[in-house]
Design a protein that fits this description.
The complex is a heterodimer of chains A (about 425) and B (about 100). Chain A is α/β, with parallel strands linked by helices. Helix content of chain A is about 35%, strand content about 15%. In chain B, a hairpin with a 2-residue loop joins β3 and β4. Chain B starts with a strand and ends with a helix. The chains are: A alpha/beta (about 425), B mainly beta (about 100).
Chain lengths: ~425, ~100
Amino acid sequence: MPGVVAMATAPGAFKNGEGFEMQTFLGFPRPGEMAGTRNYVLVIPAGRLLNIAATRVSNYVSGTKTVITGGENGRHKKDRERLSRIFVGLAKNPNTYATIVLGAKKDFGYREVDPYILAEQISKAGKPVEVLTVEQCGGLNRLVESGIALARHYVHLASSVRREPVPIDRLTIGVKCGLSDATSGIAGNPSFGKAADTLIANGGSAIFSETVELIGAEEDVAARCVNRADAKRLLDMVAKVEEAAKRTGEDIRAINPLPSNIAAGLTTLEEKSLGAVRKAGTSPIVGVLEYATQPTKKGLHFMDGWQSSFSLPMSLAAAGCQISIYQLGGDDLPSIDPPMLATNTGVVAPLMMITGNPRTAKKAEDSIDFSSGAIIAGDSSVEQMGAALYAKIVSVASGELTRGETIRYSDALEPYYLGPVF
Amino acid sequence: MFHALQLEPGDNVATLVVDAEGNTELTIQAPGKTVVLMTVDPISFGHKVALTSLKKGDIVSKYGRPIGRAMSDIPKGGLVGVHNLEGLRGRGDLVQERGASK
């Protein structure tokens, strides 16, 4: 039954045995009946000039995160608003305890990244937020010093917040699939879909995205929208990206599927899409979201977005996801462990890496948090793997680190912009 | 033990979960049954095998949905991939060709 709180349990007591659906996780309580799976202090560079200061503060102070992007200059209003939604969304995410906004001075640059306007929007979440500027601190070096002092103060305050059992309906998870191969649509994505269905049945929420990868599967997805206006908006979003793809003058296969997808056996975009949408499980779609906006309902949502791993996890976190899942195919990766560095591009939301490919699980043990590869080997079912993955997600929500979280590495990030630039 | 999966009853391709040589007998798990098929080509893990002989222009389906069109005749047991299957969506190159022939 959605919203029912099971008896308070210690993390070790979480079980997903017969007839027992986990209905709580251990989260950091936040204002507005929200709960964090993590407890970070976020440092926002309000304007690209502040990237260096935000990087210095975040590198110096443990327990902080920052978000480094190419910035706002030369972008039109709709794109600057997208950047602003990323900043505000990450600050409002329940995983963020407090936010420091670094700026140049009052009334400098575009209004969408004005530090005071950002802070005003962030303050509506009822959490600590403060602006520091170059002008007010007496120079960039002093801004870094003041930022470090304030960040240390906030991190210390954050440490007094304790995890406690909270209803699982306070959990929103995001998903992307990446380096997809034939196992993605058969094992990995359906297993995640099953886990998401379980979370949603227990009152929680999930967001999937990757608009380009609905091409060829959009009718089936639109038919699952609870209301007709959402179905139409979803189809419009897909039509828009398909038109843009055609304007390139290229065969979409030269762009997406990626060379790695093709080498692993996926031939056409339609084939990739039909496998990709398996990650949306079977729950009704209760909402269709514009890029980097938060749901207002519980349940399954689609969000317009770009699939890149240095864009989507951050964007899902800005939409309120407290964990994101990267469903890796990976058959074309080099056969050494690790074939790539585990990365953690959700900023405040941990990125869990899972795969449905037993060969990927073997060669990327160092990076993989969960494997449903037993399905391909014929040794397990989507139902069994989905249940096990749900238990793993609840455990990560309750504090278990992902492999990606054990190293301090994140790519430079990029919001999904419409372009062009001027 | 199976070597390939047919996902939906109407699909005319199956996905290999092993690496197979040409002229090899494959056990294919189909919805509700198992079928046996000889490969014509070597086919790697994750790639597709034709379950029936396909004519140029035939729609290829997987997941019970069209994934593209055969660019040439494909024998039963043959490899189905970028060399003989083309997608039909998002094809900017086709738009250009149509534009040029006007």
